[in-house]
């Protein structure tokens, strides 16, 4: 068995209504620190986690959406967003946080972390993973 | 006192909104809060269902929950008024569907 | 108006307890009477003094305790639900032979009758939960 | 305010997957002991609570479905089951527990506790209640 | 090793089954357990969806969960085989959708 | 086969913990190795010794403790999730200035790294939760 595994964290829940989105992010950050290949998928209400303009100041709860912007620095650069889930919710990529990373292998060029993919494409990506964790 | 129905789950994840629309009587009010506020967004797969229910029901959504989720600008087909916690108390919240 | 509140989820996994807190605060400010807050199902987990949430996060248990103290609000944890989930006060500790207890300040453990009584006494019963 | 209130417990969840159905029944029994008028509704997956033939022997969990048969003795004799919920699940009244009560006002004749009603009829029943509790 | 998808929520309450059908690849297996076993019932509003998915996927349901809910006799459109906990381990459970 | 288990819900509200117990028992009987059971989210509530379930109901906490003892299984409660929810061992008690602890026999509190390690070491990771 190779010592580096491909992890895919599948985020399915909206933020704030439940803690799953936030506690998933905590696992992602630890996973990245273990030098594994960590990828994220946003499916169903999980796409709401990365909607821009979140403001929890009236809710006495922590706004953790800025943390997604830090993922690139942890080497987490593949954020797959299912197109069917966006469509059902009337969202487009423009409604999402502008998540970027600097590509070490391309003279630190700034690139998009988010890839909008179809369900069929995502199904193939699932098959390529070693570890799938749902949140 | 008119019944106020509350919906706290996303209409894309759970069947709470559908049950509410089925069991609310004419003249009732429906309040979206917590993840239920996603039901107040324009242009979604459930928006038409709510629009047609507006003939019989009044809809509102909790402002702080809309803002937290970054959808206050995306929300608001006609009639879905954002309300604060204060207004909820006065409006008379009574959970039933 | 006399209001009764039921909280059916724990302090962190679901937003329910936070929603209930915000609702109760608004109701008190508006001059309504909170007859009782009844914690049922996983809601009993709001009544433990053993939580240590992160510094930058809300402390929901302490918020309930403070609210109870400031406005003399009756916080009741359901005994049957508490026994299944491990919320213990001094009486329960003795009754069930436990070696400690974890009830938070301002909470008391009692029976489901307290919920029914609230439903009977209050003009309105508001439930927060899953 | 009258000292006897009309309670309606609305059961929406399947049994065993979560504890809500069982903990609802505990409240119902206490409510009946308080001499209130206690009614039950079974909506959505709540209709699964009273499906007959439940057998938890392989699950090391308690089968609480026999308790519904005792409700009549507690004076809980109105069990409304939403027809739309049955239809969606391919169920009919024949798939449900044969829940009965003895009518004190009719020479203790045995009568059905279960009434299958339409959503529209149930919406009217909801309007007549003083206290609605969802589980 | 072929992926095994698990569904533990009722298809009438939550969207878990739908997401699973969308994201499962040809040849994968879907295991219903806990409240997910209601997906194995005949004659329901979701039964046709599963029947057509059977061209690409294999379905099974956990026997003890079917029995507990009294639906072992109502379950089982062709291919939905009841399995015990033992068989689950051998079949290789891997939660992913 | 080497198996890792994650339990994401408490002992009573959801069936998840019971399903996990039944799965682990079956896996052990079939001769598989359980590398670790990791309790996350509300799953940490499986690790309190303060529960007193009804006599005629299952005792899930004790079942985990017994399983751990009989088969030498590593039961790990996530520290971050435990702090939010009030699960405390002797070390956490001292660190967070609590006046008691409630960890059940056979459980230990540790970091999320233990979950990632299980994912890396095991042939298969099985999650039970909401």
Detailed description of the structure:
- The complex is a heterohexamer, with 2 copies of chain A (135 residues), 2 copies of chain B (97 residues) and 2 copies of chain C (130 residues).
- Chain A is an alpha/beta fold.
- Chain A has helices spanning 20-33, 66-70, 83-88, 119-127; strands spanning 6-11, 37-42, 79-82, 100-103, 109-112, 114-117, 131-134.
- In chain A, the strands form 2 sheets. Chain A has a 5-stranded parallel sheet with strand order 6-3-2-1-7. Chain A has a two-stranded antiparallel ribbon with strand order 4-5.
- The two termini of chain A are 26 Å apart.
- The mean pLDDT of chain A is 95.
- With 97 residues, chain B is α/β, with parallel strands linked by helices.
- Chain B is built from 4 helices and 4 strands.
- In chain B, helix 3 links the parallel strand 3 and strand 4.
- Chain B is globular.
- Chain C is α/β, with parallel strands linked by helices and 130 residues long.
- Helix content of chain C is 37%, strand content 20%.
- Chain C has helices spanning 16-29, 60-71, 79-85, 90-95, 113-121; strands at residues 2-7, 33-39, 75-78, 107-110, 124-128.
- In chain C, helix 1 packs parallel to helix 2.
- Chain C is globular.
- The chains are: A alpha/beta (135), B alpha/beta (97), C alpha/beta (130).
- At the C-F interface, helix 3 of C face helix 3 of F.
């Amino acid at each position: 068995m190779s010592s580096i595994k491909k992890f895919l964290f599948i985020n399915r829940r909206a933020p704030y209504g439940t803690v799953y989105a936030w506690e998933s992010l905590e696992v992602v950050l630890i996973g990245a620190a273990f030098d594994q290949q960590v990828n994220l998928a946003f499916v169903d209400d999980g796409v709401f986690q990365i909607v821009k303009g979140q403001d929890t100041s009236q809710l006495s709860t922590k706004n953790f959406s800025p943390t997604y912007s830090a993922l690139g620095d942890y080497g987490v650069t593949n954020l797959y967003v299912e197109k069917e889930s966006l469509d059902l919710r009337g969202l487009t990529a423009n409604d999402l946080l502008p998540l970027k990373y600097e590509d070490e292998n391309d003279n630190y060029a700034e690139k998009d972390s988010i890839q909008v993919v179809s369900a069929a494409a995502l199904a193939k990506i699932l098959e390529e993973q070693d570890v799938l964790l749902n949140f | 006192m008119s019944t106020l129905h509350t919906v706290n789950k996303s209409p894309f994840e759970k069947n709470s909104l559908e049950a509410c629309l089925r069991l609310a009587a004419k003249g009732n009010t429906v309040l979206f809060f917590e993840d239920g506020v996603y039901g107040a967004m324009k242009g979604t797969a459930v928006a038409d269902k709510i629009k047609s229910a507006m003939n019989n029901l009044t809809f509102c959504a909790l402002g702080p929950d809309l803002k937290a989720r970054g959808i206050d600008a995306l929300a608001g087909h006609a009639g879905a008024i954002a309300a604060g916690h204060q207004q909820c108390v006065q409006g008379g919240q009574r959970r039933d569907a | 108006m006399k209001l009764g509140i039921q909280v059916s989820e724990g302090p962190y996994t679901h937003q329910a307890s936070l929603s209930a807190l915000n609702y109760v605060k608004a109701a008190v400010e508006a001059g309504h009477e909170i007859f009782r807050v009844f914690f049922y199902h996983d809601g009993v987990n709001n009544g433990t003094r053993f939580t240590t949430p992160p510094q930058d996060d809300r402390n929901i248990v302490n918020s309930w305790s403070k609210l109870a103290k400031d406005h003399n609000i009756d916080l009741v944890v359901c005994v049957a639900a508490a026994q299944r989930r491990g919320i213990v006060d001094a009486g329960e500790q003795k009754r069930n032979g436990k070696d400690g207890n974890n009830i938070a300040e301002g909470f008391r453990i009692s029976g489901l009758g307290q919920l029914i009584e609230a439903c009977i006494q209050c003009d309105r019963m508001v439930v927060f939960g899953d």
